[in-house]
Write a structure and sequence with these properties.
By secondary structure, the protein is an alpha+beta fold. It contains 8 helices and 8 strands, in the order E-E-H-E-E-E-H-E-E-E-H-H-H-H-H-H. The longest helix is centred in the C-terminal third of the chain and has 31 residues. The chain starts with 5 loop residues before the first strand and ends with a helix.
């Protein structure tokens, strides 16, 4: 799309904006836009929430789990209305992890799902912080249960995982529903949110290993686990406080875990536990790379 530059009497230059873009983003003569100059590129954007997207999917032959996976992806993408159709009767599924989504029309071979929440996603920093804190709280609960209480069940763990995934998907949706004047930061933040979801899954796997195998917990194993939690805490502080000196200590802790982990003489269950623990440590440390990309 091309636009001619118009010279004004006061030596200013203007261009016209596409009316379709104006309407889709609910702009008028009182609206303010964000401008960002990058060498030969001028980026014009608005902080208004993007217009709701609608989509249709033929789910003939899909299992309930695959329908659920599709809806998760569309929800995180920012789609506001989904029409599911099939040649036969659609299998039952749940919307438990999709905040604001509701079934507004249902027939045997057609279901319409819509976001009826009317939520404003503008405060992404607070949503992001809440999700990160939930991951930290999950790890605290896991360590307490694994090394002291041993009360959690597989069903209880499944419920915890559902709650974490709900907010991770909500964060991803919020990011995709907003427009960024700096598109790179938007992509980095989405990657960060995706990594947080993976960290939550790894903590869940660590916890599940203990429930399924009833591991013998030693002081050395507890120390290693608490070190990995400390890395996650420091990663949180690094993002929100951006204390550059803390990054050296964080990587020092990661190296300490690497050295200690290889000294364990483990059976298969313990090896699985340490593998999950090490993955949490590595992924938490790697978050600093994304934080640096945004903060510097």
């Amino acid at each position: 799309m091309k636009r001619k530059i118009i010279k004004q009497a006061n030596q200013a230059y203007t261009i016209t904006l596409p009316i379709q873009w104006i309407r889709e983003n609910k702009l008028d003569e009182k609206s303010e836009l964000d401008l960002e100059i990058k060498e030969k590129t001028l980026m014009i954007s608005t902080k208004n929430i993007t217009s709701g997207e609608k989509t249709k999917i033929d789910i003939t032959g899909f299992s309930a789990k695959n329908i659920y996976r599709c809806l998760n992806a569309l929800y995180a993408r920012g789609v506001d209305e989904v029409e599911l159709t099939a040649e036969d009767e659609i299998a039952k599924f749940t919307l438990d992890s999709l905040m604001g989504y509701a079934i507004i029309e249902q027939k045997s071979s057609k279901i319409i799902i819509k976001d009826i929440s009317g939520i404003n996603y503008s405060n992404i920093d607070e949503i992001f912080k809440r999700v990160f804190q939930m991951i930290l709280a999950l790890y605290d609960s896991a360590i307490l249960d694994i090394f002291k209480e041993n009360k959690e069940t597989l069903q209880g763990l499944k419920n915890r995982d559902l709650e974490i995934n709900k907010f991770c998907l909500y964060l991803q949706r919020a990011i995709n529903k907003m427009l960024y004047s700096n598109h790179v930061n938007g992509r980095i933040l989405f990657t960060y949110s995706f990594e947080l979801e993976k960290l939550g899954d790894e903590i869940k796997r660590l916890w599940r290993t203990n429930i399924e195998h009833k591991l013998k917990k030693t002081n050395e194993l507890k120390e290693l686990t608490e070190l990995s939690k400390e890395i996650l805490e420091k990663s949180f502080d690094f993002y929100f406080l951006f204390n550059k000196k803390g990054i050296d200590e964080l990587y020092h802790l990661r190296q300490k875990i690497r050295e200690k982990a290889i000294l364990f003489k483990t059976n298969s269950a313990e090896a699985k536990f340490i593998r999950h623990l090490s993955k949490i440590s590595e992924d938490a440390a790697d978050l600093t790379h994304l934080a640096l990309m945004i903060k510097l």
